[in-house]
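Chapter summary example: a protein plus iron/sulfur cluster.
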Amino acid sequence: MTELTREDTEALIQEVLEVYPEKAKKDRAKHLAINDQEVEQSKKCITSNRKSLPGVMTIRGCAYAGSKGVVWGPIKDMIHISHGPVGCGQYSRAGRRNYYIGVTGVNAFVTMNFTSDFQEKDIVFGGDKKLDKIIDEIETLFPMNKGVSIQSECPIGLIGDDIEAVAKKKTKEHDKPVVPVRCEGFRGVSQSLGHHIANDSIRDWVLDKRDNDDSFASTPYDVSIIGDYNIGGDAWSSRTLLEEMGLRVVAQWSGDGTLSEMELTPKVKLNLLHCYRSMNYISRHMEEKYGIPWVEYNFFGPTKIAESLRKIASHFDDKIKEGAERVIERYKAEYEAVIAKYRPRLEGKRVMLYVGGLRPRHVIGAYEDLGMEVVGTGYEFGHNDDYDRTIKEMGNATLIYDDVTGYEFEEFVKKVKPDLIGSGIKEKYIFQKMGVPFRQMHSWDYSGPYHGYDGFAIFARDMDMTLNNPCWKNIQVPWKKAATEEAEQLAVGA
Amino acid sequence: MPNVMIRRNDDGKLSFYVAKKDLEASVVSVETDTRESWGGEIQLDDGSRYYIDPVSPPPAFPTTLRFKRV
Ligand code: SF4
């Protein structure tokens, strides 16, 4: 299908909305928009961060997922207890592919599942005693843990357990931080509030631990990577670039990160914020309390990487600025070769995205480097400020959808006919069965890293591999194929 | 009476951020912005207005302050 005009897109949205009952239609209409680069503030055209409509298929997660799964989970030397029934932790275990270095079960625990496995009696009589016991057991079985976080699941808030009291008591007993996190799944409208709650708990229970301790020898070039979860090794391929340009990365939040790194973060000179949505809160807090400025950056695709490296360098002296140029120069041949190889195979292909909190806008540049065009994008749990930042990245008259429902997404795809879709695992098989090439863009479809120059090469290869896979030609069964061909011939003949 | 975090953006403008309300806007005008004090009625680029009793001496940004909606 050729370019959609503004009117076509408008008509498409109306058509899709048609099936809803009046009230639902009114609600959903606010979440679907046509991009207009003239608009300064997204809230004029799109509503976000609202409760999903009952009865539709939403793709969102819960606050517990935002805290345990995203922010706390990757901190490798702490044990994160999924406090409540067993399912929440078990079904999300290790799904996010946060890579880390360490010996699992000895000094690193990311892919393990710790749960208090609530039974009926814990709901009736409360689970604080059990929690107390679990923390003791953890101490005996895994003495090399550096701390424990208690990730509340729904029942904890409902039955009114006092996990803070247990945490305080256990912190004293074991002389290790025990952090209670009130991230019950029912809080807020999506995982987004879970991020915020997790940020706040880090602020209250972790961040100020070394405030009066100057034993850490800092340098003028100390930075921390915030909001990079090291999915498939993303933080590593980012870190190498920063170190090459002369910076010292003190902390990684939170992919392959540790508790002590987090405690040291207030000593850095600049916070580098990749995922704005999930960690802007803590960055803002550090700016206010410790005077550490933060910059948003984007390490997807050479254009954005170069832009970001220069932006980061602008906060430092000439040595770092030269370093940034050196890094860009050094990888030039490499990424130009990648573009030369894949661009001819991908040029002009159209992509639709629907991901979480940063990729709907961050990966656009990487696709553009490969000559591809993003024709529709949307966030599961973005807020107004995310859409503010998206409008400028997207072309005019492209589709923007917030908290898109399963039905809407399918209809959009049927009409817009993109060559590639990037979204999550729940969407993957639906679209593949519809015959549309698909990449799972949350955990890189078992691939990655995609950040940095090294990541870009993998990104380009993966997109090519998916899009130009011969299987898409064979998606239709032969007898139906014959029928369509006949119909086409008839149509031509008529 | 929302708690508002005010910081200076890269472009030099003040940004007005209310986490609870999911509001991030630029400050267009401040009623009193002198050496001695800062505050009064504040206009945002989305048209809404907030009020704070002038703070003196002017606060160092970033900072969190309590505003009233006008
Ligand atoms: S909504 Fe509640 S029960 Fe469901 S996964 Fe989240 S914490 Fe668990």
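Key point: Residues 3-69 of chain B form a domain with the OB fold (Dihydrolipoamide Acetyltransferase, E2P) fold (CATH 2.40.50.240).
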